[in-house]
Write a structure and sequence with these properties.
single chain, 122 residues, mainly alpha, 7 helices, flat
Length: 122
């Protein structure tokens, strides 16, 4: 290692020259784009958009036309009619490594008391 200053002159690039070079290379493409009106350019996307819409419609029709097994319907209705419980959330927290007490406090609907925050027994 030396105390000589580092010579960065090789990295000295004139940005004006780079910008002029890019503008010169892109000028024919930009001129060709400007010849067509914006509306025409948008209309040219009609076929790809229709193709994408048809694919989405076909996939949606297939998904909606499938028969759902009766046990799935009963299970879905049972879940909807069951009272909302937050019991599964602490188990998820435990599987992620969150302590049980912290996970249960995070799922409570009421804010913790001062004693809870200070870790004092009730």
């Amino acid at each position: 290692m030396t105390d000589d200053p580092i010579d960065f002159s090789a990295f000295d690039v004139q940005l004006d020259d780079v910008a002029q070079n890019v503008a010169t290379r892109c000028a024919p493409l930009l001129a060709e784009r400007r010849r067509a009106r914006t509306v025409v350019q948008i209309v040219e996307w009609r076929r790809p958009m229709i193709a994408a819409a048809l694919v989405i419609a076909a996939a949606s029709a297939f998904a909606l036309s499938r028969d759902v097994p009766e046990e799935h319907v009963r299970a879905a209705l049972a879940v909807r009619s069951a009272p909302s419980r937050l019991a599964p959330l602490p188990r998820l927290g435990e599987s992620l490594g969150v302590p049980t007490e912290l996970a249960s406090r995070l799922t409570m609907r009421v804010p913790p008391t001062m004693a809870d925050l200070l870790g004092q027994p009730r």
